[in-house]
Amino acid sequence: MRATIEVADIFRAAGPAYRAAHAGHLSLEQLKVMSAIETCRTAALGGHVEACSDCGHQRIAYNSCRNRHCPRCQGAAARAWLEAQEANLLPVGYFHVVFTLPAEIADIAFHNKALVYDLLFKAASETMLTIAADPKHLGARIGITAVLHTWGSAMTHHPHIHMIVPGGGIAPDGRWISSRPAFLLPVRVLGALFRRLFLTRLLELHGAGKLAFFGRMAGLSDRQTFVRHLAPVRRKRWVVYAKAPFAGPEAVLAYLSRYTHRVAISNSRLIAFDSNEVTFRYKNYRCSGAERQRVMTLAADEFIRRFLIHVLPRGFHRIRHYGLLAGSARKDCLAQVRDILGVAPASDEPPAPETAPDPRPPCPCCGGTMVIIETFAAWCQPRAPPTARQPVRETLHDPA
To answer: Which among 213, 206, 232 has a CA at the least distance from the CA of 102?
Structure first.
């Protein structure tokens, strides 16, 4: 069911004026995201006409933009991704680990998204793999699924990595080593190594002249100024947060469905929009209990600005896998773990066509099966539906 207010409504109403006011200051990717969200599920993208094979009720369904930043399109994308990941779950406890960048580094990342976000992935994953492999801790090779989020609840710039990690790994001698029931790795040790790895490589990027700085941060192009800027960060504790393990594989999937394809704000959090201001719900994580739930009102231009700062660079992968779950070796590693644990291998066969669920919602009138009877191209309108409901003949079914 469509939300009362959607991000698309805000972009359609305030987007043209925002583009005009910020002409020359928006990236091509940001402009593409705005256009995709504004035209998503409208005649601009084309669509099809569906009819109920029982009662003849007809409805028009417009195509989705499928942009990864569109709030309306991510539900289906998340479901498809989860179906593919279900075969990768192991019958062990899973931990949730979060790596967060200090504010001083987040400011640098704002101007160098592709480089610094990639460095965040590399430093966080290497930290986990290194500490886990240390015999003083777990002494095993672990698997990691990492997801990048760049926002706080109020859509401010807050880059951090969420990790889902199985509670154990493969030892050098081939044994499976399980973590303690409620403890994976020491977070203070993780934070110290993460800080060292990240800052060392950030300085290397600066030395190679790969970092860019603008506005009030332009002075950081100077090497000595940059080093002085990082001095307080070296003394600060870098936050690594580890939650208690999930209660079984089903809980892992439920978590992943909420986090993997999330965007800066969902339509369900929007409360009101009057063409000038947007009101939405957010969480203040510095408070607890009922005080955590807050309401914020922003000017439409500021809302759009905050949304667009989370548009990722073209081709940037925000979900990555490491260790036992990395790349082409994943299937063999998971088979080895299941063999060690003595569990049956998960089936990676797709569901049979006759048992696969129909992606189209049932008929709202009688609950019957809806079939496609007509498709139309972008900007074209479908033919007018019949005035009386007639049963749809089989010959009208779309062969696709």
So the answer is: 232
